[in-house]
Each structure stands twice: as structure tokens, then as C-alpha cells.
Amino acid sequence: MRELVYYVAVSIDGYIADPDGGFEALLIDGDHASVVFGEFADALPVQAHAALGIEPPGTRFDTVVMGWNTLTPALALGIPSPYPHLRQVVASRHRRDVAPAITLTDDPVATVRRLKQEDGPDIWLCGGGELAGALRPDIDRLILKRYPVALGSGIPLFGAARYEPHRFTLAGTRPFESGVVIEEYIRPGRA
Ligand SMILES: NC(=O)c1ccc[n+]([C@@H]2O[C@H](COP(=O)([O-])OP(=O)(O)OC[C@H]3O[C@@H](n4cnc5c(N)ncnc54)[C@H](OP(=O)(O)O)[C@@H]3O)[C@@H](O)[C@H]2O)c1
């Protein structure tokens, strides 16, 4: 069964964006880019592929799941389908006018559980925090790009999820000269 992988950039203190939804404070250049642009090139949006002149490999992920607030920055930039190389599933409790390439779901837990039964590369949980909070019990692997900055406030990794400890097993850490550490955790019982 393929995995639901929450691959996300996060601050030292566990925020994925600032209080207004921006993430400029998390953007730093450096040697971790080799992983972001290489191993995880499937998780780059269409404009990044165009700017970098690279083709998404299609080997790490074939599906992205995101919350409505994570799609809206792309819409504001005039990009209705930010990940056209992936199947794009967007959680919303409202009827929304979206590009044909986007599938809306008002029950992301059921949708993800169904998708996980299919064969293929893994499913990327892009975020944001609210959706990740709802999907927390279904996350098989956490890959955190931990940036060396403390925001103090912002959008938490799991939104306002209720207190309910879920243990993960540390599978590895990769520190970079940039100060970024890529931390990988798996749900107990996964290989
Ligand atoms: N650092 C990173 O790598 C990273 C990655 C992704 C996102 N982000 C940032 O995170 C921020 C967005 O996070 P967020 O927590 O505010 O929002 P979010 O999870 O992206 O979206 C929240 C919206 O998604 C829908 N939704 C969420 N859970 C749902 C559920 N269980 N059932 C049905 N619909 C559901 C609802 O949409 P409706 O209101 O339409 O019902 C809800 O208002 C953005 O600023 C984004 O830039 C950062």
C-alpha cells in the first residue's frame, strides 16, 4: 500500500507559515536545495519546473492533497492548476469553481484512505496545517524540512488539532550547511 507523506517546510518552533499565511521567513538558499530540486522535484509547482528547466520525474509522488488555503496563493498568482504533473485533490467544505484538473473533496480522510489502496508512487500531503491536522492519523511518513528560524507565531504544522499523541519513529536526519535539517519520521509498523 502506498504512503501518505507529509513533506513540508517548518520552522524550529513548528510553524509552516507566518500568521498571514506567508512563508518568506522560511525561504533560505543553500545546499539543501539539491534535495528539494532533486529527490523531491515532484513536489515543485509548475512555475518552478519552468524556471529551473526541469521535468518532474514522476517517481516520488503521483498525487498531491492540499487544503483550500494552500491552493489559494497559486490562484492569486493566476495559476489555477499548480501541480499539473500530479493528480490534485483539494479539500473544501464548500462548492468551489476550480480548474478541471482539480478534484475537490469534502471528506479528505475517506478520499485519502481510498487513494492509499491504489498502486503507484506515494501521495504527497502538501498542507496546510488544518488539513494535516485532520489527516494526522493517516500520515505514514513525515518529512520535515526544518528551517533554522523561530517564528514565534504562525500556522502550526497540524493547525488547531486536538491534543492526541501520535508516536512516530525517527527514520533519519540530514543536516545541511544551510542550517536546514531534513527530518524523516515513520508511523510505527511501516518499513
Ligand atoms: N511550509 C510549507 O511547506 C507549506 C505547505 C503547505 C501550505 N503552507 C501554508 O499553510 C497555509 C494554509 O494552511 P491552513 O491551515 O490555513 O489551511 P489549509 O489546511 O491549507 O486549508 C484549510 C481549508 O481546507 C479545507 N479543509 C481543511 N480540512 C478539511 C476537512 N477535514 N474537510 C473538508 N475541508 C477541509 C477547508 O476549506 P473551505 O474553507 O473551502 O471549506 C479549510 O478552510 C498557507 O499559508 C500555505 O502557504 C505551507
From TrEMBL:
GO terms for molecular function: 5-amino-6-(5-phosphoribosylamino)uracil reductase activity. Residues 4-181 form the Bacterial bifunctional deaminase-reductase C-terminal domain. InterPro entries: DHFR-like_dom_sf, RibDG_C, Riboflavin_Biosynth_HTPR. GO terms for biological process: riboflavin biosynthetic process. It comes from the Bacteria. PANTHER family: BIFUNCTIONAL DEAMINASE-REDUCTASE DOMAIN PROTEIN, DIHYDROFOLATE REDUCTASE FAMILY PROTEIN (AFU_ORTHOLOGUE AFUA_8G06820). This is Dihydrofolate reductase family protein. The lineage of its organism: Bacteria, Bacillati, Actinomycetota, Actinomycetes, Nakamurellales.
